[in-house]
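Continuing the batch. This is chain 6 of the set; chains 1 through 5 are on the previous pages. Same settings as before, nothing changed between runs. Recording input and output for traceability.
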Amino acid sequence: MSELAAGWPILSIVTFLPAAGAILILLARMSARGDSPGYDNGVKLLALFFTIATFIVSLFAFAAFDPANPDYQLTETVPWAFGMNYAMGVDTLAMSLVMLTTFLTPLCILASWVIEKQVSSYMVLFLVLETLMIGVFCAQDIILFYVFFEGGLIPMFILIGVWGGERRVYAAFKFFLYTLLGSLLMLVAIVYMIATAGTSNIPALTEYAQDGGFSPEVQIWLWLAFFASFAVKMPMWPVHTWLPDAHVEAPTAASVVLAAILLKMGGYGFLRFSLPMFPDASHVFTPFVFALSVIAIVWASLVAFRQLDMKKLIAYSSVAHMGFVTMGIFTGTIQGVQGAIFQMLSHGIISGALFLCVGVVYDRMHTREIAFYGGLVNRMPVYAAIFLLFTMGNVGLPGTSGFPGEILTMVGAFQVNAWVAAGAALGVIFSAAYALTLYRKVAFGVIENPKLDGIGDLDAREWVTFIPLVIATLVMGLAPSYVLDFTHNSAEAISTAFAGARP
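Output for chain 6:
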């Protein structure tokens, strides 16, 4: 596979192949009647084909990638505009997130088979969104990164606003404005950095920064500008309030992408920019980030326990789990950074699966109220078993992918501040309380609601959607070294840059 990938602009192919599918769907819509069920199914199959093809091409890129090499690989550079270049390249951190994106998107298309309104527009937006998400992780030019980073807001804004729930317009605008306003400060900082360093190339900017190009005082302002964007994207407490509304109103597949991929862009930004480029400022703000992370872990877990809507409960769970990510990143230790990367990948799998679990029963009953359900194990035993696995993963049960990331971030935190680790451990206890309570109320007991008497178990499409996620959860939990060995070089480089800075 690596020989086949050699000589090809494979990152560009992976990035823009979904967009090519979107263009093809638009051309088909212009030349065909779109008022028949057969047409809609054809559009869905075409979207599924292009997302699967993108995943297959990403496997070629993965095979051509050498995890032992700490440098950027599969690089592409083409002159672009105003002295900037179209530059693509990946290290182990970026490659792992690219694979997560291409792995999950076909499953999201399968989950979108229930969409009946404006199907071609929906699929076009989803394919464009995949292109923009992959581009964020592949971009080696900071302006190109910003274009992809902000561009992803548009299709997600439309997906929530058109195909969402009753309060979809409110949720869409809240999501858009929160994330856009935070990123405007980052744009100002990017312009300053390019003017000062004379380059927009991310590796060159990193080298310039680590050679002392930005003074500690300047780093403070640059760090804050980037933090304003990445903290909202994660989201960190207290700028998280857009997330529960967006999740509740978004269609199921959009919720999956939002939790599994878009939130990870904030963590990726901290790992790619904040620690390597502004290590002095990162040291200064570490106590601040620790405080926000522990508050997020504990507070969001307590709020999740009180939720009546399944989606909103899982949304607050995401806020808590992202607290582990930011805590691990800013420990600056190899264990903490490794744990944060692993947690991002694991949360992408588990949170996506949990939103799909909610989508299964919502598609049948058209409600997400926890009180509506109960006793589903009697009518949906396979669904109940799968839901239980992902609940255990969300709790961090050993043997699932949720465990290695959480334990590593706490080990890293303990090396720096034992009180921070203790606060995070308290959050683990609370997460078990709300997750197991949710499962008990939905799956166990007798069926008291007569409307549930005829509910059916998973169909073939849902089986195909969940099996890859089950396998990924178990493989990452039972053999975490596959991921940890792969991401080690990136984690070590970030940890070294942070440790070498002036405390």
